[in-house]
Amino acid sequence: QEKLASLGQLAAGVAHEINNPVGFINSNLTMLAKYTDRALQLIHHMEQTIESQHDEAAIAELNKARTAYKYKYLKNNIMAVIDESLEGVDRVKQIVQDLKNFSRIDEAEWQWADIHAGIESTLNIAWNEIKYKAEVHKEYGELPNIECVPSQINQVIMNLLVNSAHAMEEPGNIYIRTSSQEDKITIQVEDDGSGISDDIIGKIFDPFFTTKEVGKGTGLGLSLSYGIIKKHNGELTVVSTPGKGTVFTIVLPVSRNHSDHKAA
Q: Torsions phi, psi of 253, nearest 5?
């Protein structure tokens, strides 16, 4: 779990460092939009003034300048460019918030958490690994908040999502399903990737076991995930059909039934 703590500290530090410049970029772009709007209004007023004088030479010079500086294009697009930039800043702010939600470094203790919110944040963080490999389908049931260490559950979901994406030899599908049963909840991550062969499926939760080439993986992702779920008094199981896909199933209790205060 030291790796998870380090990840959380790194995520929190990055989020803090990014927030400051993003804040003044957002502020400056907002002011730039106001100034640009005023400048366009002033230019429009000056155009009307020149044209009302019926000075053909001045009007000709004005039209020449409009053409030279592509003013029609500029006027039609400058606010759109600023708006797109502001949307980009909002996207960065959302990524930073998702990073903070994913790490939850300030909330490393057991607490009641919304699993769906954790899945959404984790999907955003993992999106770069997934977007070119698979379409994600979310089939959420009604879930109560559960007592857990959110950053650790997020890490498990991240590992399963990335594992599914890496199983895709060509673009496919990932299905995330949730449901509840009395005092337990279930999370399933299913893919229609290459599947896991019978001779290795019994080893995938073993530490350091990996089918990836050297340097592409430590073989700790699924082992860590298995350990985290076990320490939450849950179960992590896998069913796979080679050539058709894999289903990972997490079952977690809604509340703790032991007195320990940390998932160590």
A: -70, 150
- 26 and 121 inside one domain: no
Please tell me the number of Cα atoms within 13 Å of 27 on its side-chain side: 6
Does a structural domain hold residue 94? yes
Cα–Cα distance, 98 to 18 (Å, whole number): 13
The pLDDT value recorded for residue 211 is: 54
User: How remote is the C-alpha of 159 from its chain's centroid?
Assistant: 14
Same domain, 133 and 199: yes
For the chain, the domain total comes to: 2
**Structural domain boundaries, residue 152:** 110-253
Instruction: Identify whether the C-beta of residue 152 lies closer than 8 Å to the C-beta of residue 107.
Output: no
The CA–CA distances, whole Å, from 190 to 13, 193, 249 equal: 33, 9, 8
Q: Residue with structure tokens 């410049």?
A: 21
Q: Name residues whose C-beta falls within 8 Å of residue 211's C-beta, 6 or more positions apart in sequence.
A: 200
- pLDDT of 117 reads 93
Q: Which residues of the chain have pLDDT under 50?
A: 1-2, 4, 105-106, 213-219, 258-262, 264
